[in-house]
Amino acid sequence: MSECVLDASAVIALMRREPGHEKVTECLLGSPAKISAVNLTEVVAKLAQEGWREDAIRGDVLIEALDDVDFDKDLAFAAGLLRPVTMRAGLSLADRACLALAQRLGLPAVTADRSWTTLQLPITVQCIR
């Protein structure tokens, strides 16, 4: 894998060394992986829920290595327009934020959520498991 956009599930899988984490590591080789600020929020929320302190989350090497992208008006519209085609697969706003960013940048979206692979989208989805 080369450049990619990471979903929160992929980042969390890497941090926990869950199955598929090696594929996420490949995304980080060379140039930093992109992540929507919405997905970064999910990562931080999950780590905080698990008891991580803010300074530990902010100082984590993985978090520092990610290139976070602001969720602007254009991404908001793109994510919103994905709702009808992703609803049957149960994708969340954060999932659609990741897909919208991948679409904007022309990069694959990397996730641990297999349901993304069932979608008929003009976006490359790579599932890590």
Task: Briefly summarize what is shown.
This protein has 129 residues and is mainly α.
- Would you report the number of β strands? 5
Identify low-pLDDT runs.
none
Shape: globular
Q: State the end-to-end CA separation.
A: 14 Å
Backbone CA Rg: 14 Å
Quickly name the level 1 CATH class. Alpha Beta
Identify the CATH architecture: 3-Layer(aba) Sandwich
Which class of secondary structure composition applies to the elements? mainly alpha
In words, what does this structure look like?
The longest helix has 13 residues, at 37-49. The chain is mostly helical. It has eight helices and five strands. Helix 1 (8-16) crosses helix 2 (21-28). The strands form two sheets. It has a three-stranded parallel β-sheet. 52% of the residues lie in helices and 11% in strands.
Notable characteristics:
129 residues, mainly alpha, Rossmann fold, three-stranded parallel sheet, two-stranded parallel sheet, globular
SSE order and pairing:
Elements (H helix, E strand, L loop, with lengths): L4 E2 L1 H9 L4 H8 L5 E3 H13 L4 H6 L1 H5 L1 E3 L3 H9 L1 H4 L6 H13 L3 E3 L13 E3 L2
Parallel strand pairs: 1-4, 2-3, 4-5
